[in-house]
Amino acid sequence: MNPPPQRAGATSQRNSADRLGRLLNLVPYLLSRPGIRVAEAAADLNVTERQLREDLELLWVCGLPGYGPGDLIDMAFDGDRVTITYDAGIDRPLKLNPDEALALVVALRMLAETPGTGTRDAIERALAKIENATGDLAGAPVAVRLPADAERLDAIRAAVERGHALHLTYYTAARDETTERVVDPLRVLMVGGKGYLEAWCRRAEATRMFRVDRIDAFRELDEPAAPPDSVSLHDVSDGVFQPGKDLPLVMLRVGRGSRWITEYYPCEEVRRDGDEWLVTMRVTDLGWAQRLLLGLGPDVTVVGPIELVDRIRAQAATALDQYAAPPEPVGGGR
Amino acid sequence: MTIPYSDVERLAGTLVGYGADVRVEAPPELREVVIQQLKEVVARHERVIPAVAS
Fold it and tell me: How confident is the model at residue A238, as a pLDDT?
């Protein structure tokens, strides 16, 4: 056999991690198969016989602190057969401390609730074992919030996996309208606790993120999904909405009562100015900004752009005009 | 349509957000608050002609 090629640092690091995993597996594997042939074990573990012999040699010098005879793993070779004669306590059951157990329980519950997880059975079995073993924790006051639209998310994920195009009835909050469109799905993902479908939208001729809870209805089409080859997936590590530099910049004067918007929406700048805050944010759509800001009432004043100032004033004025006439008698009108 | 509420100011804020799509018929105190808030929004967004620096 040729000597292994010179390895780069990263490769050798990965190799040692692989090897550690292999070694940890090796002991219980051999313990349950005393006298197994090295060749057979190598085939089972999917390594070369030579690699396995190297692993065994390393195992020989592993064990408990003290590292004297009686602390180290010991094994007997009989021709091409191997038996572990002393396992240095590696078969001792793992005892989790309460923090470790709680972390595992929370992580597993989260995983079990994540829609579309294929191995839910295995997760639930593991969870039951840990909860049994730790006793007190079974009733730990840990709630894992699951998205209300889990079923829909599962259904969409299944459709995406079948590789078909989808027809969506989708509510666009920014324009307060419901649209029909055909999309070529790319993937389903969870960001900040919300489910999204990322897809090539044939109507917009661009990649779009669809919030699953805003998909009013969807139909799987017979035709296969065919997104253009050039599409790339969004980097969502900083959240789904990443305001680009080309989006309109809105400047606001915000009072205490509406200051939450600076925490709820991504802002470019938030500056304290007496009792108010001067806030700059990028918005995809002035219509959306108009609805949001009008709803915040007199607590928010738009400083710019002037177009948005005019639109808000005009909209408020139109609403005010309705009150010029006296109210219809109650019960008289519709 | 008829909706229950507990806080006049808050409901008024929500209703103002709908602009001309919503008109409060009754009760009068809610109507007054909505009108007041709309007036204030208009006033706050009145175009101020900036003083020309000489």
Answer: 59
**8 Å CB contact of B19 and A296:** no
Strand partners, A301: A253
Provide the domain count of chain A: 4
Spatial CB neighbours of A308, under 8 Å, sequence gap ≥ 6: A250, A286, A289, A290, A293, A302
Give the closest-approach CA distance of A260 to chain B in angstroms: 15
A312 and A258 within one domain: yes
- CA B20 to chain A, closest CA, distance in angstroms equals 4
Residue A109 forms part of a structural domain? yes
Average the pLDDT over A278-292 and give the result. Answer: 83
Choose among A294, A306, A320: nearest Cβ to B39: A320
Q: For residue A175, how far is the Cα from the chain centroid?
A: 27
Q: Is residue A240 a part of any domain in this protein?
A: no
**What's the CA gap between A294 and A280, in Å, rounded?**
17
Q: What is the CA radius of gyration of chain A?
A: 31
pLDDT at residue A334 in the model: 46
Containing structural domain, residue A158: 150-224
Of the partner residues B19, B25, B44, the one whose CB lies closest to the CB of residue A319: B19
**Cβ of residue A286 closer than 8 Å to a chain B Cβ:** no
Contact A328 B19 (CB under 8 A): no
Contact A203, A181 (CB under 8 A): yes
pLDDT over 50 at A188, yes or no: yes
CB contact under 8 A, B45 and A320: no
